[in-house]
Amino acid sequence: MKKRTVNRNKRILTALLTAVLTFSFAAGSQAGVVGPGARVKPSTNGVTIYVSKINKEVTLKQNGVVIGTYPASLGEESGSGDKEVQGDRRTPSGDFYVCLKNDKSSYYLALGVSYPAIPDAERGYEAGIITAEERDAIIQANKAGETPPWDTALGGAIEIHGDRYPGGVTAGCIAVDNSVMDILWEYCQVGVPLTIGP
User: Fold this and answer.
1) In terms of CATH, what superfamily is 47-197?
2) Which of 23, 45, 102, 120 fits as disulfide partner to 110, beta carbons 3.0 to 4.6 Å?
3) H or E element in which residue 98 lies
C-alpha cells in the first residue's frame, strides 16, 4: 500500500516538474530580444509604431497588421528639416524604440522615444555639438536598449504623449488624443520599434 502511494506521488511530481519546465521554456522562447544589443527584455509582441511627418499620423501595427492610424501633432518647425539640436522645435526622423513608459507625464501618458540614436550621436560629434564622452554614452545606451542621455546639446525627452489638440503643435514631441494614448499604452512595451519618417 505504501509503495503504491510513493509511486503515485513520484508520478505526480514528475508530471508537475515536466509541466513547469515546459511552461518555463515556452515563456523564455517568447521573451524576445529588443533594442540593438539588448540581452533580455520583455516581449514586444510584434508591435511596431510608424510616425508619418508629412501626414501627421501615428500608425500602430501588430505582426504587420494595422491596429489603427491616428492623427498627431508634431514639432512646429518639423517642416524645415530634421532635428539637430536642443530647442529647434523639430521632431526627429529615424529608427528608434520605446525607451520608457511614463505614467506621470504632464501630458496624460507618454512613451519615450530613444532619440538621440547612434547616427545622431555620430553626427553631433562630427559637427562639434557634443563631446566624445557624450557620443559614447548615447551609443552605449542605444546598444543596451536603454534611454539615451537627454541632457546633451542634441536635445532629448522626445515622447509620444497625450493631450493633443487639433491643429496644435509641439516643441518636438508627437502628441495624440488621450483615447489614442490609452491604446498605445496598452500595446507598447519598452523596446517596441518606432520609426519616424516621411
Assistant:
1) L,D-transpeptidase catalytic domain-like (2.40.440.10)
2) 102
3) strand 94-102
